[in-house]
Structures are given as C-alpha cells and as structure tokens.
User: Which sequence fits this backbone?
C-alpha cells in the first residue's frame, strides 16, 4: 500500500510538471506577444503628432506705412526666431509649458518688445514687469507683478506655480522668492533702452499728469505672449509685459491676472491677450472666451471675434488676443492698427504678420 502511494505521488508530481511546461509553452508566448502588441500600440512617432505654437508681440502698433521697411523686417525676424525657439521644443515632443515659457523668454530678452528688456517705463521712469503662465492640463497657474529686478518674469511666474502654494507674488516678495530659486537677477537699469527712455521723456513733456491717455500709439501696448498645443494634447499659455507707458507706479494690468490676460484649459483653449488691460480685467476676457466654448459650444474663432470685435469694441477698448484650441485650431483677432503675431504648426507651416 505504501509503495502504491509513492507511485501515485510520483505520477501526480510528473503530471504537475508536465502541465506547467505545457502551460508555459502554450500561454506564455501569447502573453509575450500581447505585451508586444500593447507596447506597439502605445509607441508614437513624434513626427506624426499634431502640435501648434502661436505668439504675439503686442497690439496697438502704428498705422500701416508709418514703420520703415527695415523696422518691419526686424520685428518679423524676431517673431520668426521666437517661433523657432518654441517650435523646436514641440517638434521634439516637448511640453506646451516649456514651449510657451521659452518663446516668451526669448521675447523678454529682445529689446523690440514691451516685456523684459525694452519694456515701457512707469511715471517714475522705471520698468515694472508682470507675467503669468498657466497649464491647461492641470489648471495650475503662476504669476508675478510689479517686479523690477527679475530678468525673465515668465520663468519666475512658472516657479511660483511649481514651487509655492500660491498663484501670484508681487514686488519685493516676488523678487525675494526669485532669488531663492536661483533665477537671474539684474539691476533695474538693464530693462531701460534708449528708445524707451526717449519715448518716456517725450510723454512727460506732453502731459506729465495724464500719461496713459497721451501715449503715442506705438507705446500703448506691447505685451508678448504665447499659446501652444503639444503632441500629448496639452495646452498652455504665457504672457509678459511692461504695461502702459507712463503708468502709475504699482499699476498692474491684465497679463498676470489669470482669466483676464492669460488662461488655459485642456477642455477648451489657451489664450494670451494684449491691449488696454483694465478692460480685459473688467471683462475677464481670456476666461470668457473659454466659457463661450465650454458652455455655449461656440467655435474658437467665433468666440475670439466676439470678445475682441464685439464685446471690447463696443466698450471702445482696443486690443487683441491669440488662442489655440484642443483640436489645434487658432485665432488671432485684433481691433487695433496692428498686432505683431505669428504661428507655427507641425508639418512646417509658419507665418508672421504685423497688419
């Protein structure tokens, strides 16, 4: 009886081993094949994915024909360069956040635009800078306002978003934070260019007590901004500005106000505005555009035109905006003489314009 039990146990053990081998032969290759299929379905060729970058260098410029051909060429050239900076990131599969920050940083460093170096001056002849950035994927945002020593305010805005529990830091608090983050700090004189200083002096000679209403058209607006859709389908927006020439010290415009001059939401669109900030703030223009799309089902272009060509125009407010939706559609409406702008898409399409 003991011998029989041993034989049975040996046979049972052999059966189990055989079954295990059989299962591994029949099932495991299928599992491996299935894993390979899953991996193949996830793998994406970046070159085949849609991405879009749109930028602006401000609305409210001079009437067509008043700028020299050389000046126009210089602006268009810098817009092209800004597009290439952000476009290189998107084409390589980078994020929309990195793309808009990099494009705006480039324009902050370019003295032609009213942001960073070359920003307009307040009533005291000082550059006070504002900037914001927003991630359409997470809904997180950051901004700084009234800063005078941060070389690239848009990067400081992103650090506020990523490294603090806040959305906005202003003045000395923002600058102290930027230092702790190791951001590049500069003397306030860095931002002042001869052209801006000359324009400021002329504006003071005309009517020093009412600076905002007496600015030449070229000095009214010059905010820079960028919006992008990356290959992962995420939207982002960033805006940076020196504000209005001769503004009161401490004045903050719409650019760093989330929902007014800057907004991004993956459900709808990303927006960066430029113009007379007080009107954009009172009408919450950037968010309102998104809301028209989300709650009324309005297409991007129609919503953009309603904001700029109807809502603001009826209030006798001037300005413009750039926006891109989650499908990659873009709009760039403006009701001023000009708006420095451009866009680049996957596939190589690229355009810049002023009028």
Assistant:
């Amino acid at each position: 009886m003991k011998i029989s039990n041993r034989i049975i146990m040996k046979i049972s053990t052999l059966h189990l081993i055989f079954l295990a081998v059989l299962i591994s032969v029949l099932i495991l290759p299928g599992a491996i094949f299935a894993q390979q299929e899953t991996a193949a379905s996830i793998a994406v060729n970046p070159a085949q994915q849609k991405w879009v970058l749109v930028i602006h260098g401000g609305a409210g410029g001079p009437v067509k024909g008043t700028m020299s051909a050389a000046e126009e060429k210089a602006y268009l050239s810098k817009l092209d360069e800004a597009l290439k900076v952000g476009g290189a990131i998107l084409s390589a599969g980078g994020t929309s956040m990195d793309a808009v920050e990099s494009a705006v940083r480039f324009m902050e460093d370019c003295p032609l635009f009213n942001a960073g170096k070359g920003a307009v001056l307040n009533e005291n002849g000082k550059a006070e800078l504002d900037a914001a950035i927003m991630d359409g994927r997470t809904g997180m945002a950051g901004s700084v306002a009234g800063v005078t020593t941060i070389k690239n305010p848009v990067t400081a805005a992103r650090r506020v978003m990523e490294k603090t529990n806040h959305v906005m830091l202003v003045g000395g608090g923002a600058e102290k934070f930027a230092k702790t983050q190791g951001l590049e700090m500069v003397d306030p004189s860095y931002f002042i260019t001869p052209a801006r200083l000359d324009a400021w002096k002329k504006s003071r000679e005309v009517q020093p007590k009412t600076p905002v209403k007496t600015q030449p058209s070229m000095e009214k607006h010059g905010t820079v901004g960028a919006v992008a859709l990356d290959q992962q389908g995420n939207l982002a927006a960033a805006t940076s500005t020196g504000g209005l020439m001769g503004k009161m010290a401490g004045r903050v415009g719409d650019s760093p106000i989330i929902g007014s001059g800057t907004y991004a939401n993956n459900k709808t669109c990303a927006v960066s505005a430029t113009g007379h900030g007080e009107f954009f703030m009172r009408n919450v223009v950037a968010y309102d555009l998104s809301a028209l799309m989300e709650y009324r089902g309005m297409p991007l272009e129609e919503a953009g035109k309603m904001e700029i060509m109807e809502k603001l125009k009826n209030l006798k407010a001037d300005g413009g905006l750039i926006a891109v939706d989650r499908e990659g559609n873009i709009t760039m409406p403006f009701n001023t003489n000009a708006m420095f702008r451009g866009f680049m898409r996957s596939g190589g399409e690229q355009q810049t314009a002023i009028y």
The two ends are 102 Å apart (CA to CA). Residues 1-11, 16-48, 210-220 have pLDDT under 50 and may be disordered. Residues 48-353 form a domain with the Glutamine Phosphoribosylpyrophosphate, subunit 1, domain 1 fold (CATH 3.60.20.30). The chain has two domains: 2-42, 48-353.
